[in-house]
Amino acid sequence: MMRRSLQVAARLGHRRALLRTPCILPGLDPAAAFGSSTDSLVSRFCPEKTDLKDYALPNASWSPDMLSLYQEFLEKTKSDGWVKLPSFQSNRDHIQGLKLPSGLVAASDKSDWRIFTRCIQVEGQGYEYVIFFHPCKKKSVCLFQPGPYLEGPPGFAHGGSLAAMMDETFSKTAYLAGEGLFTLNLNIRFKNLIPVGSLAVLNVQVEKIEDQKLYMSCIAQSRDQETVYAKSSGVFLQWQLEEESSPESL
Amino acid sequence: MMRRSLQVAARLGHRRALLRTPCILPGLDPAAAFGSSTDSLVSRFCPEKTDLKDYALPNASWSPDMLSLYQEFLEKTKSDGWVKLPSFQSNRDHIQGLKLPSGLVAASDKSDWRIFTRCIQVEGQGYEYVIFFHPCKKKSVCLFQPGPYLEGPPGFAHGGSLAAMMDETFSKTAYLAGEGLFTLNLNIRFKNLIPVGSLAVLNVQVEKIEDQKLYMSCIAQSRDQETVYAKSSGVFLQWQLEEESSPESL
């Protein structure tokens, strides 16, 4: 795995040098079209039938606050256009059947890859979260309950754990709203600490899409909106994933 | 735990309202003095004898690159003024005998608290890192090797995992360089993806200390400096921790 990873790194470095501009990915084609509609992205992202475990479902560790707000949004999926996003163990599961950009060859000799925000699988100890997305309004709401393994200052969530939760919510929103695939910029202003075990509600909004970039904002606050935990902005690079040529080989 | 945490949150919200200014902590006293020297902070932070497990020591998962750079810096601790920082399971261990600011009463009815960047204890699967600090130069170097539980795009570290690593390196640097305790701002520009299993070297520098704030910069790159993974800046709030009145009760 190490060798493959380093080869990827070397390849990235080489192509970057050829382009003579700093970029997160090799071979950026500014003329690339972003033809997939949000509806088709959402319907691919939320398979009706799957054997994959969805980690964004209530469990015994969810606080009453988290559970009741989850139920509230679940009601809104029936009539108000909101979509509950599934959350699988790895982004590999989310992009099944799609090809990564050339130069980004994913190492595959590990059996247990986990998306960072699902790294801890003991209920209630790490990340508990669920994201709802609104395709028309291009906004998301993430219900986030940090567990004791996400500690920073004693009794409170680590600033980095909130940063990662924001990045992940931005990431899923950017992908579904406009094929945003890679974080370019993340700017966070922290206001108050989140007590471990309590609920933080992240409201993400796509502000604009320009020059192959999605610009988003986020505010994380208590459910009653009395306490603002942090505000942030994020910029993501658009990148259209193509269908694998041999989907039957998956 | 839930009730206590929510009480803390309520208290924070209430005091914040009284102050009528957004702040991360209640009762900020601008006249507070920051009298502890970096040397005394470092010597308290790095106890010569302790029963606590230090997670910042080599293990079988460390790549040859990580291991050899670790040895290089270890040599520099003997003659060049660098200090290897220990990394315990929780910040509670790091601030033993010190009192948190009023209003921040740490919940304590969980036995297994973990600092976020040590949340995964299976060697090589999550965060592998070690921080070296230079008290005179007020700079740090963090050797960071992300494992497969830190994945974002298939085969690469999640942007949020690097954000958290930067925040944690900023945090330890800010505390030792000038009693910086809480992240106020974190701004990250991502340039290239870090392949899982490879080494990223984070160089953190304290740029200035002004108005009770520490301003820091960070660059994360490959060991050969050919590939820049990300650049960031961080602002931390200074806060002097006091000795517990009854240290024998700890």
TrEMBL record, chains A, B:
Keywords: Fatty acid metabolism, Hydrolase, Lipid metabolism, Mitochondrion
GO terms, molecular function: long-chain fatty acyl-CoA hydrolase activity
Keyword Aminoacyl-tRNA synthetase: no
Family: Belongs to the THEM4/THEM5 thioesterase family.
Reactions the enzyme catalyzes: (5Z,8Z,11Z,14Z)-eicosatetraenoyl-CoA + H2O = (5Z,8Z,11Z,14Z)-eicosatetraenoate + CoA + H(+); (9Z)-octadecenoyl-CoA + H2O = (9Z)-octadecenoate + CoA + H(+); tetradecanoyl-CoA + H2O = tetradecanoate + CoA + H(+); hexadecanoyl-CoA + H2O = hexadecanoate + CoA + H(+)
Residue intervals of the Thioesterase domain: 155-227
Domain of life: Eukaryota
One GO cellular component term: mitochondrial matrix
UniProt-annotated location(s): Mitochondrion
Species of origin: Urocitellus parryii
This enzyme's EC code(s): 3.1.2.2
Protein name: palmitoyl-CoA hydrolase
Pfam families with a match to the protein in the record: 4HBT
GO biological process: cardiolipin acyl-chain remodeling; fatty acid metabolic process; long-chain fatty-acyl-CoA metabolic process
Gene3D superfamilies: Hotdog Thioesterase
